Amino acid sequence: MTKHFCTCPDTKCQNNPCNHNKGCDACMQKVLELGEIPACIWINAKNGVAGTSEWSMEKFSKFYLERKSEKV
């Protein structure tokens, strides 16, 4: 079986694909129910997971707008 590709650093999360063989479905269902942005998207936005404890869409929008001009 091919390992599912995932950039999420939270390997302790039960929804992380490294902990089951169902891909990203469980994670996406959770974040949609909570109105959050998945950690993999935060990573894509200037390696944004460090120091983040709130995953809301509002927090992500503010984070992204503050850093959009920074070089990766």
Compile the SSE list and pairings.
Elements: H1 25-34, H2 39-44, H3 57-67
Could you list some keywords that capture this structure?
72 residues, mainly alpha, 3 helices
Can you put this structure into words, describing what you see?
The chain has a domain at 35-72. It is built from 3 helices and no strands. Helices cover 38% and strands 0% of the residues. The model has no long low-confidence stretch (mean pLDDT 80). The longest helix is centred in the C-terminal third of the chain and has 11 residues, at 57-67. The relative contact order is 0.15. It is mainly alpha-helical and 72 residues long. The chain has helices spanning 25-34, 39-44, 57-67.
**How does the helix and strand content classify structurally?**
mainly alpha
Strand content: under 5%
**Separation of the first and last Cα atoms:** 34 Å
Round the Cα radius of gyration to an integer and report it. 13 Å
Helical coverage, percent range: 25-40%
Helix count?
3
What gross morphology would you assign? globular
Number of E-type strands: 0
The whole-number mean of residue pLDDT values reads 80
Unreliably modeled segments: none
The ordered H/E elements are: HHH
The major beta sheet can be summarized as: none
In short:
The protein is an all-alpha fold and 72 residues long. The protein has helices spanning 25-34, 39-44, 57-67.
